[in-house]
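Subject: for your reference before the review

Hello V.,

The reviewers asked for a structural picture of the protein, and I figured it would be easier to keep everything in one thread rather than splitting it across files. Below is the amino acid sequence we used in the manuscript, unchanged from the supplementary table.
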Amino acid sequence: GLAAQLLPLSVRYVAGPDIDEYGNDSSLGAERAVALLKQGSRGLPSAQRKRHDKAVERLRVKGLAARSYRDIDGTYIVETRLAQMENSKAVRDMADIRKEMADALGVFRKGPKVKGHPKAVCHLLPENDDLELDAMVCTAHVGEILVTTYAYGSESLPTGTIAEMFRDQLDHIASPGESV
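And here is what came back from the structure prediction:
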């Protein structure tokens, strides 16, 4: 299933904290995944809620899987989420929209490139001298799977290492069963 597409724990990472109420390693079937995505329309006026819910249905979500990782030194957390959809054009569109939105806002710093995946994109939080934390989000797609990785930790966040982990995740989906 989709959970098997998640990058396994390694010598560099142990299980991380829970992701919402789903634990640190979870998988949702189509029905629960659609219900979860539709929750994003709560609080919207009726017409907008219906439009949002129809857009979710058009994605034809097959399932969601998520896993969190903590580096062995305990300095940062990585959360990876996979969303599998029958509508592969919608997956490409979602990845493109996320990139365009982050770029258009103009507040995020560009993150590292993801070697071997030119369409993958990473963004970092804006610089803030008052925070001693940093965060990065990376997005890409492999076929019908939208891959999103969130990483957060101290302001010395190892963005290059996290981008390598993201690359390994993308390669793991593209070539399941091969060691990465």
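For the response letter, the relevant points are probably these. The helical segments are 30-38, 46-59, 88-105, 159-174. The mean pLDDT is 85.

Happy to draft the paragraph if you're swamped.

O.
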